[in-house]
User: Fold these one by one.
Assistant:
Number 1:
Amino acid sequence: MCAAVAPEKLSGNVGFIRFGRSDPHYPKAEDALVMAFAGTDPVSLFYAKPSDKAQRQFWQIITRESATDKGPPLSCMTSDGKAAVVARMWPDNKITALNYLWSTLRMMMAQPIPRIKTGPLTKFTDWMKANKKKMAERHGSFVYVVQLGARPEAQGQGLGSKLLRRITEYADSQGLPCYLEASSPGSRRLYLRHGFVDVEEFPDLPVFSMERPAVKAAKVSP
């Protein structure tokens, strides 16, 4: 379990708090991420029903699957709870096949019936799995940035950049590459500014797998 810690200074009066899946700070981080994506992100708009309940359920499942108590304490949120990032080591700390299947089945419940019949969600999740597998084959261990978002009223304030920089600085300190999937033009522009490059585009949606090369540096704790 990631222990709750005092906020650490990011910029000005903004600090961050690390969290894990069982941490008391987790619900606030989950809420920030669900609010950031539900009803606006192209992935859930395409794969989930348009209702607020289905949109929120879709992202709650993803966040709960992705947050972890294992490995380096990479996931963190701003001290005001307005933005959060979920990251984990991969494949060292990858999601188990059983958990992956269970989460996929639950997400399918949020899909419209025609989507379930055509199976596009499994096509998308298989694409993500294949890209992470190829990333591991090329580089070995890497930092997987699963989610990064801010509540609507806090977007455009640079909070995402501050949280992402903490992740990339840790990766650089360990000589590790980073990987993520960018699901909107705005997020892709952010990641490009932070040194990520396009690897592959998903054929059905403008979603890009992206990676950031490893930078050799002295190792420090996250």
Number 2:
Amino acid sequence: KLSDLIDSHDVVCMLTDSRESRWLPSLLVGAAQRRPRREGDPLPPLGMTVALGFDSFLVSRQSYLESPAACYFCNDMNAPADSLAFRTLDQQCTVTRPGLSGLSSSTAVELIAALVQHPDGFAAPYGPQTKQSCLGVVPHQVRGYVADYRLSPAETEPFKNCICCSQGVMERYEEEGLEFIARIVTNSAELEKISGLQAMQAAVREDDVLAFDEFDDF
């Protein structure tokens, strides 16, 4: 039913409080992009994430058909886990600056409007040499910072070992369906193995890692 609900909409916005609660809808939106389509079939939905910190926010769109972009989990180095237990309210992103919710949601709406007016629609690329919408640029991601009243648009690329949108995870979901979802809900660490993230981390040697702090000269 959830998959059918996602397929029946043009845009799916992930607006929930915790990281882990965004994983399943992000996965379903990603899977919808991969389904074979015949001429006349409806297009898949666009996945849009809006996430809040105390005085910052993130608006991000996922890959759409053949137009690649990072999903919300492409920067994660661990499988999603319980991020709310044993945390204070401010650590749960429940406490934010008073205007942050309105600023972030209005930024997401403006980005969707610009994409709708773009010649390539939701598949619009973003970069220095790409076409703009009649409403302006269409970044993959926008970060907002209330403390200094700043918006930072960015181009993103999907991570090949992502715990949500990587080929290994998508193929496993397509093969196993709800059985795969039920297993991941019980043991999300399995995603690190399926995605190849575990093997990538194991291959990193200690002398390959460079650590810097504010006292280092570059």
Number 3:
Amino acid sequence: LRRVRRLVPVPPDLEKRYLAVYEAFKDIEDSKTGKKLFHSKHAKCAHKSFLKHIRRNCISDIPFLSYYAPIDMDKNGLTLYKCLRGTSALEGLHQKLRQLVRGFSNSPRLVQALVSDYLMRWNLNIEIKIRGLHKRYEGFYDGQMIEEDVENLAEWNIEQPRISDWISTKSFADTGESFGVIDAV
């Protein structure tokens, strides 16, 4: 399955397919209980909820958004993909954040500093794993030096930059907004 990219269709198509499966299986009896599969109050509630989510476009893929990143080639030259759909990557992030701020006596400023630093490191690791930043930056977390290095590399080969969609932080103006925990007045 790592060689095949899949698509969750638009709501009308998805609803049609879902209802076809539901209709095919709703009257089948459970071999252990002897009751119909979707007979219980909870099953009917789940069915209605799922239809509501389909109709609200909560499940379908967003058009023109790629949910797959190429990670390698197999021995036959076929591309292997990593699926970015779902929440499993975020679950890992959230688990690490809970471990990071587990103490009960952490000040808000300490928590903000720890989380900010950790998110910067997490994002850089994602740049390396998924978006193509060179592996030599792995474990090196000075964002300003990395940015200068990438900009210098881009100047060497203007026709085809190393990271084509790189946007320098120098391209943005300071908005004057403050970030973090502020003192109450």
